[in-house]
Backbone:
């Protein structure tokens, strides 16, 4: 069976995977346009619809007071598991983090009109290791809607994954997780920021050390993306996948998806259960 990296060739535009990695290492992000077919996007949108209809909005300024976030997607439809193990995203995660990498989170983010910019942040900031350092996480952004200059496309600072700074102007702070008031102004606007503009079905990938933020939605329609986030095999996941995905659901997932949520071992033996590999325990529970 081809390796994950070998399966990426349909989307590499005639370039080698190594050349894309060199660009990734230099810029800290990549965009691949129209990876998913229109039919696939439509099916994903339909699978998400019942959860978006609940219209649960963010609890603070960081999550977005005019944003729907749907968490634990691995337990909600096999379509979302397929996104998490898509070879294009997964190949970059494995190359950066190793084959023992884990799925740290899998969520949908739906920005409504009037949503304001997020504070600047980098996704593996929970790992309290000084910068500059190698990324210990990789984030993928699947555009379900077109992401445009106006509707809140993710903004990145190219090359910032190499910076030693632990903060930037307009960076996230503890109060942002408690604040339920919209900010009065954009204190983090900067000329070197780039918006990840891409058509529906496209994929953007960022390093966990890249400074980025969700943009403001100044359009008259929502903007929907799905973001699988990966971490090194020894790092604690953002979502508690063992609780988010019950064993009876985990047993129905593709094997690689099960490994990503924790039914795997980081060498030599991180992740064992009662002295055995977790997939053996899962098999015994489902018999």
Residues:
């Amino acid at each position: 069976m081809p390796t994950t990296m070998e399966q990426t060739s349909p989307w590499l535009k005639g370039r080698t995977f190594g050349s894309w990695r060199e660009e990734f290492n230099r810029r800290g992000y990549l965009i691949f346009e129209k990876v998913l077919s229109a039919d696939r996007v439509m099916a994903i949108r339909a699978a998400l619809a019942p959860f978006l209809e609940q219209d649960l909005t963010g609890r603070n300024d960081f999550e977005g007071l005019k944003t729907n976030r749907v968490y634990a997607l691995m337990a909600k439809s096999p379509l979302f598991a397929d996104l998490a193990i898509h070879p294009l995203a997964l190949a970059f995660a494995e190359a950066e983090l190793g084959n023992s990498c884990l799925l740290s989170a899998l969520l949908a983010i739906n920005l409504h009109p009037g949503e304001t910019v997020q504070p600047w942040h980098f996704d593996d900031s929970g790992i309290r290791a000084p910068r500059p350092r190698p990324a210990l996480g990789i984030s993928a952004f699947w555009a379900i809607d077109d992401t445009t200059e106006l509707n809140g496309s993710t903004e990145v600072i190219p090359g910032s994954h190499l910076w030693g700074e632990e903060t930037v102007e307009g960076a996230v702070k503890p109060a942002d997780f408690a604040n339920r008031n919209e900010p009065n102004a954009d204190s983090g606007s900067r000329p070197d920021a780039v918006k990840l503009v891409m058509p529906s079905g496209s994929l953007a990938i960022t390093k966990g050390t890249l400074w980025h933020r969700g943009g403001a939605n100044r359009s008259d329609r929502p903007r929907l993306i799905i973001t699988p986030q990966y971490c090194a095999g020894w790092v604690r996941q953002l979502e508690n996948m063992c609780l988010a995905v019950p064993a009876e659901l985990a047993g129905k997932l593709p094997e690689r998806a099960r490994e990503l949520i924790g039914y795997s071992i980081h060498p030599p033996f991180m992740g064992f259960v009662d002295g055995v590999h977790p997939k053996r325990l899962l098999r015994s529970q489902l018999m």
The beta strands are 29-32, 67-70, 102-111, 137-143, 155-156, 194-195, 203-207, 212-213, 223-231. Helices lie at 17-27, 38-52, 78-84, 87-97, 241-244, 247-250, 255-261, 278-286. The chain has a mean pLDDT of 95.
